[in-house]
């Protein structure tokens, strides 16, 4: 693996800068530290050679990097400069990976000298390290993991969010194995969850789950599947579960965790009444697995109302009484639930207090089966026929317009012919000669 480019703001030979950093570390550690004395013979051996030996530099860096944990307690104004110098020295060797991994470990630990600004300092150092490496260098992977870990511990999600669009590109550029990509996706998902960004957390958890489909029946696949299902159920904005049911690992739950599979099936296609039956039959399942019953009840009522609206789409009306019965709520609460469902984007329509009806404008199908596809095909055919008729009318109107214009032009030409008749006879008659004078002698 090639090294990374030199930092433009650091000048000096490797030997000189190494000794300078070693002296600083000795002073930071206090009396008894002899790092400068330990590396001086190694540096002397390098100076004797026209071409510094790689092994000597690696040996020097092992000592410098090993002692650099003390920098986390260095004064804030000196800490980042010292790390920049260390990064520059690491860039002088061909295989910097082992040293970069150690720096990442240091940066994920607390910076004791600056509790308030420690997160910003750590992210600044890691960002310098990340941006200094070539884009296709897989060492960037470890640096990014450290950045995500710092963000997770600090809750500084907004720092990472603008870079999320690049994650898939980085995974490809670094040619990560499935296990490595899964580790990265899970780290991002955890960081998002820690900042209450449930949509992003679920998105990257699903990406992690997709990297394990080749072994869908494994314990890891089962645990990740259940974790994704719990996150989807608790997310108040997530109503479409077909992204889960399409995964092999979710299908494998039917054998390994039948109760979880049954719960998912309820939210895919069943209604509130069946969900109550499930809770009675599995009375301790929800609390034992950390599921919030109130959140699940609310979501199931919303999905039940969406199904009612879709089922009555042909009549365009849904009586309050039918809604109250299906949702097991008082009639006076129907309008609140309808409004809440509209806000969730599941349905659209208008409430009629006078008729005690909900007028359906749009509804969401929870499961898009062959029946719905046939309905879509029928509607598309109707629209196609209507558009064909409209197009025929437009063409006919266009033809009539063109004919009218032609008739207007022809009519005006006839009028011009009647109003002007040139005297062809005079125009074609030979010109008469004038009489000439005859001279008489």
From TrEMBL:
It holds the Pfam family eIF3m_C_helix. Keywords: Cytoplasm, Initiation factor, Protein biosynthesis. The keyword Cytoplasm applies. It comes from the Eukaryota. Residues 197-365 form the PCI domain. Belongs to the CSN7/EIF3M family. CSN7 subfamily. HAMAP family: eIF3m. This is Eukaryotic translation initiation factor 3 subunit M.
């Amino acid at each position: 693996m090639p090294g990374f480019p030199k930092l433009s703001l650091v000048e000096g030979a490797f030997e000189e800068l190494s000794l300078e950093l070693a002296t600083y570390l000795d002073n930071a550690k206090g009396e008894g530290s002899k790092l400068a004395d330990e590396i001086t013979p190694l540096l002397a051996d390098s100076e004797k050679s026209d071409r510094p030996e790689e092994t000597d530099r690696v040996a020097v860096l092992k000592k410098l990097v090993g002692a650099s944990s003390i920098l986390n307690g260095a004064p804030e104004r000196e800490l980042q400069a010292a790390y920049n110098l260390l990064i520059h020295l690491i860039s002088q060797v061909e295989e910097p990976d082992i040293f970069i991994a150690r720096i990442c470990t240091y940066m994920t630990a607390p910076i004791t000298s600056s509790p308030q600004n420690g997160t910003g300092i750590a992210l600044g150092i890691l960002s310098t390290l990340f941006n200094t490496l070539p884009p296709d260098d897989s060492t960037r992977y470890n640096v990014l993991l450290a950045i995500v870990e710092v963000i997770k511990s600090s809750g500084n999600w907004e720092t990472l969010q603008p870079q999320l669009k690049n994650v898939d590109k980085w995974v490809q550029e670094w040619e990560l194995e499935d296990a490595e990509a899964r580790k990265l996706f899970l780290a991002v998902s955890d960081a998002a969850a820690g900042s209450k960004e449930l949509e992003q957390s679920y998105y990257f958890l699903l990406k992690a789950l997709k990297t394990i489909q080749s072994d869908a029946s494994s314990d890891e696949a089962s645990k990740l599947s259940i974790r994704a299902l719990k996150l989807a159920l608790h997310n108040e904005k997530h109503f479409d579960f077909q992204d889960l049911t399409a995964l092999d690992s979710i299908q494998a739950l039917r054998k390994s965790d039948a109760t979880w599979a049954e719960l998912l099936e309820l939210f895919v296609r069943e209604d509130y009444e069946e969900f109550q039956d499930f809770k009675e039959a599995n009375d301790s399942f929800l609390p034992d697995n950390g599921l919030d019953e109130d959140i699940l009840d609310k979501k199931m009522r919303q999905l039940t109302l969406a199904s009612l609206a879709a089922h009555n789409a042909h009549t365009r009306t849904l009586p309050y009484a039918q809604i109250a019965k299906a949702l097991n709520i008082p009639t006076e609460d129907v309008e609140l639930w309808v409004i809440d469902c509209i806000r969730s984007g599941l349905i659209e329509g208008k409430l009629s207090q006078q008729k005690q009806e909900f007028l359906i404008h749009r509804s969401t199908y929870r499961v898009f089966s062959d029946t719905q596809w046939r309905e879509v095909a029928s509607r598309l055919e109707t629209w196609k026929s209507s558009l064909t008729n409209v197009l025929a009318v437009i063409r006919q109107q266009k033809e009539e317009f063109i004919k009218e214009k032609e008739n207007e032009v022809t009519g005006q030409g006839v009028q011009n012919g009647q109003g002007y008749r040139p005297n062809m006879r005079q125009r074609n008659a030979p010109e008469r000669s004038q009489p000439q004078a005859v001279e008489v002698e």
